[in-house]
Amino acid sequence: MFQPENFGRLLLGIGAIIALAGVVFLLGGKLGLGRLPGDILIRRENLTVFFPITTMIVISIVLTLLFSLFRRL
Q: What is the pTM of this model?
């Protein structure tokens, strides 16, 4: 059965996650995300290729920890 209280909590939770993601992206550049050792940047005359391998690993670990915490609640 549909309960507005549960739907409201779900929307608040999703909004909080989106707001947190926005803060992480804003502060991420200042903290060095995207320029970590292990991130590969190849520049040629007409081509630039960027592989943020280390950055993606760090983000994956942080998200895994966050989702495991939310799962236990």
A: 0.60
